[in-house]
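Retro notes - structure team

What went well: the batch runner handled both jobs without manual restarts.
What didn't: labels got mixed up in the shared folder, which is why I'm recording both outputs here explicitly, each with its sequence directly above its C-alpha cells.

Job 1
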Amino acid sequence: MVITAIAILTAVAVEFSYRSRVEARLAANARDQLRAYYLARSAVSLTRLVLHFQRQVDAIQIPNIAGMLGGLLGGAGGIPGMPAGGMPQLPGALSGAAGGSMHIRLWDVIPVDSGTLQLFIGPAADSLDADFHHADKGPPPPPEPLGLQGFGGHAYRLNAPNRAFGDFEGSFHAEVHDEESKINVNAVNQLSALAAATSMELLTLMHWKDQKWDFLFQDDDDPQHLKVSREDVLMNLHDWIDADNSTSTFNPVALTNFSDPFATGFGDEDEFYQRLDPRYRAKNALDDTVDELHMIHGFTDEFMAAFGDRFTVYSAPTALLNVNTDDPGQQLVNIIVALDTTRDPSIVQELLGSPMLLQTVLAEVQMLRSFSFLGLSVQSFLAVLTANKLPVNPFLSTPNSPNAFLGDTSQTFTIKATGEVGDVESRITSVVRYDDNLGKLLYWREE
C-alpha cells in the first residue's frame, strides 16, 4: 500500500510540476507577446514620424544653381577664360534645368531600430542598476559597435543583441518600402495617357523581365485553358476594375500615341468566374489589396510569384511611377516606357538587341544613385537617355506636362515592423499615405 501510494503521489506530483511549468511558460509568452506587439507598434509610429518629416523635405524646393551661377558670372564683361555665354554647359544629368526638390530620402538615412534609439535615450536606469549589482554578471559590457545591414536597400537593422529598451527586455526594427516605385495596376482604368503608360509598363514587365516565365502565357500546353496571353491579362485586369459587365478589347497600336488602349466589347466579363467553384463576379471597382489580384483570371500563384512583387494597389491611381528604384528589372521597365516610339517604333528592339548600350544606360542610372538616400530626379533620368542618343517621350520632356507618367517623389509607403521579446516575435505590416498628420492608414495586418 505504501509503495502504491508513493507511486500515485509521484505521478501526481510530476504531472502537477509539468503543468505548472507549461502554464508559467504560456504566461511568460503571453506577456512577451503583448510587449512585442507594442514594440512593433512603436516601430510603426516612429516610422510614420520619419515619413512625416520626409514630406516636409520633399516640399523644400532648391533653386537652379547652375542657371543662377551662369547669370551672375556671365555678365557683359564676362570672366577671363570663360565662354562669352557665361557658365559652361553642365552635363544634363547634373544640371537640374529648373531646380526642384532635394530628393533626400530620410527613410533611407534614418534606421528605425531600438538599437539606434539606445544611442539617444539609453536603457532604463533600473535595468542598468540591476545588471551592475548582479553578482554573477559584473558591470554591464560596453556597447557594441553598430553596423547597418542591407545598406543601399530599404531594410535596416542594427547588429545589436536583444537588449533592454525602456523598462523591459526587447527590441524592434522597421523596414520601409516605396509603393510608388511599383506599378499600380488600378491605373489601367484611368484617363488615356496614364492607362496607356500603365499598360505599357505591365506589358514590358511581362515581356522582358525574364524569358523563363514565358510558359505562363503558352495556352497550347494547358488542357484546362486557364493560361492567357499577356494582352489577355491586361483585358482581364481592366474588366475586373471597370464599372460595366462587358468584356474589354485591347488595341496595342494606341500605346504608340498614348491614347486609351481599351474599348468596350460584347462578351460577359463574368463568364469565366461563374464556372468556378465557388462562383463569383468581377469586382467592378478598384482593388483594395494586392491579394485580391489572385481572383483575376490569369493572375495565378505562379504569375504572382514572378511579377507580384512589382505590383501595388495602394498608391493613388493618378500617382506617377517613381524612377527611384533599386530593382534592375523595374529600372529596365522605366527606361523602355520613357522612350519615344512614335518616331522610331523599333527603338525598343534596338535597345534590347544592344546589350552594351543597355548595360551602359543601366550603369549610368545606378551611378547617379550611388547613394540610395539621394533620389534621382526625372530630368536626370531622362538626361541619361538623351546622352546615349535615345529619343525621349515628349510627355516626359515637356515641363509640367499633364500627361507625364514618371515622377521622382512618393507619398505612399509600406512599413514592415517587427517587435521581439525573448522567444516571441510580433510583426505588423501597414501602408500609409501622406496627410497633414502622421499619414493616412490604408492597410494594417498583424502577425
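Job 2
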Amino acid sequence: MPPSRPASPHRGLLLDLDGTVADSHAMLANVYARLIAHAGAGADALTFEEAAAHTLPDVVAGLCATRPDLDPADLLRRYEAWVYEGYVEVPARTGAAQLLDWARERGWRTAIVTSASVEPSRAWLSARGLADLIDATVGRENTERSKPHPDPYRFALEALDCDGVTSVAVEDSRTGARAAVDAGLRTYAIVAPGAERAGWPAVTGFVHELLDLQELLARA
C-alpha cells in the first residue's frame, strides 16, 4: 500500500458563488423563467427551487426530452449567455469582501466552488473587486460531476493544497451543502432568519450573514 499523503498545514475557506457570495438569486430565477419560456415547457417544467437540486445539464436534458427540435448544447449556451448578461447587475452579498479580506490576512486560502462556468464567475468577481481575494475558482468545467457530488470540493482542496479537516465550506443550498459535507469539510449553511432547516445534511452550523462567520473561523 502506498504511503498516505501527509495533511497540508493550510486551511481553506471554500465558498459557493450564487446566493452565497453573489446576491444572484433573483437574477437566476428570471433567467430560468426565460429558459423555460424558450423551451416551451410551461407548467410541466421543474420550478426554480426544484431545478436547484439538479445539475444544469440534467435540467436542460429534461427540457429537451420531449422536444426533439431543441438542441441541449444550444439551450445550455443560451442559458449561460443570459446568466453572463445578468451578472452585470448582481451585487456582492453584504460582508463578502470583508470576510474574504479578513480570512486572507489570517492565512486562510480561499476558493469559489460553483456549479456555474468559470469564466463568468471570474468576470463577476473581477467586476466586484473580489478577484484578488480569491486564490482559485472551481467551476463546472473542472470536474466530471457537479454538486451534489463532492468532486468540486475535493478538486478545490487539491488546487489550494489545503487540509480538508481544518478547512471550511459555506453554502446556501442543501445540494451544495451535501457536496461539501461529503467531501469531509466543516460546512456552514447561510440561510435567512426563520428559514426551514429540515432536510439539510449534517452541516456544522447555520449563519444568517457572511460576517457571522468571522467569530466562528477565529475559533477554528
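One thing worth noting from job 2: The two ends are 33 Å apart (CA to CA).
We'll revisit the folder naming next retro.
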